[in-house]
Amino acid sequence: MAHAENPGATPPKVEFIVSPGLPEWLQRHSISFGFTSYQTGQLFLVGLMPDGSISLNQQNYSQAMGLCWDRGSLYLASKFQIWRLENMLRPGQVGNDRFDAVFIPRSAHTTGDLDVHELAIDSAGQVVFANTSFSCLATLDPVHSFRALWRPDFISELAPGDRCHLNGIAMLDGAPAYVTTIAGTDEPGQWRKHRVDGGLLIDVRTGNIVAEGFSMPHSPRTVGDMVYLLDSGRGYIVEVDPIKGTSKDLAFVPGFMRGLEIYAGLAFVTVSKPRYGTFAGLPLDAELHARGLAAWCGVMIIDLSTGGLVEWFRLEGDITELFDVTALPSIAAPMSLGVGSEELLTSITFN
């Protein structure tokens, strides 16, 4: 039996189906995970109940996109704010008789609508995010909406308009190392004309383009000397050698990918049903047709060494598009409190 909880506002209708082995897999690896949907504006946390059933906790965060777990804190980008959520439980405590982590929103930095796609935490504990609207990497500023850290050489000015659709950050040694853009364009919205093969992987440290020709790439991640990313318009997880500038396909995923978390050699990937009004003409459409597959919405866990599907979590109902995903190691059953919920008003803790 599956459990779904959402104190507060009435959520969209959601049903989920999981792979038969997912409950045992979560227990064996002592892990849970979270993901976001900007389509419905929600944070989802997936874990395992004491009775062995899957738990799905959902809370409302307007246009929820970037999601990051770092040093015990959960960071979330919403439409015009970046949130920091903390586990309010002390060691050994349990929330609602079954949750071993209860994430409560402790701070929100108001940025305005920057279309923040991804965020990460650097070695100094500073939030770094993909400021997609302004085509740059940025961090929080105590007075202003943001402080720019870096922008591609082909972006001529710091201005709104989403010129190249800079959407993903790869960290290395606690600092930004690579970004993905859908094109190398410098005019607002012009990246849409280059969705099929205009995608770039750029080295932040040198400004060099290390690999190109991707279709709507997202979510670069570093593992050792390699960079992994989602070649979303083709439907493939790709491994890039940034020294040689070469890439190879690792696995095909049946849907439009946006979020990637790599943990212990496994890729957690969010997959969505394509909006054919927006994604028509991408190679993904032809690939799905050739394979006789229909796109679906959910999270897939893929073994990067083999490209094989390990476990999966599938959503049905009102939600057809997901965004980011993060693994939550050493947490069995997480839940969160929503902004404005009655539980939030009465959940008071002190040191």
Please explain how this structure is put together.
- InterPro entries: CHP03032.
- This is TIGR03032 family protein.
- It comes from Novosphingobium resinovorum.
- Keywords: Plasmid.
- By secondary structure, this protein is mainly beta.
- The chain has a single domain, classed as 6 Propeller (Neuraminidase).
- The protein contains four helices and 27 strands.
- It is globular and about 55 Å long.
- The N terminus is likely disordered.
SSE topology sketch:
Layout: E1 3-5, E2 14-18, H1 22-29, E3 31-37, E4 42-48, E5 54-60, E6 67-70, E7 73-77, E8 81-87, E9 101-110, E10 116-121, E11 127-131, E12 136-139, E13 147-150, E14 166-172, E15 175-181, E16 199-203, E17 209-214, E18 217-223, E19 226-231, E20 236-241, E21 246-252, E22 256-263, E23 266-272, H2 276-279, H3 283-291, E24 297-303, E25 309-317, E26 325-329, E27 334-336, H4 342-346
Parallel strand pairs: 1-5, 9-27
Antiparallel strand pairs: 2-25, 3-4, 3-26, 4-5, 6-7, 7-8, 8-9, 10-11, 11-12, 12-13, 14-15, 15-16, 16-17, 18-19, 19-20, 20-21, 22-23, 23-24, 24-25
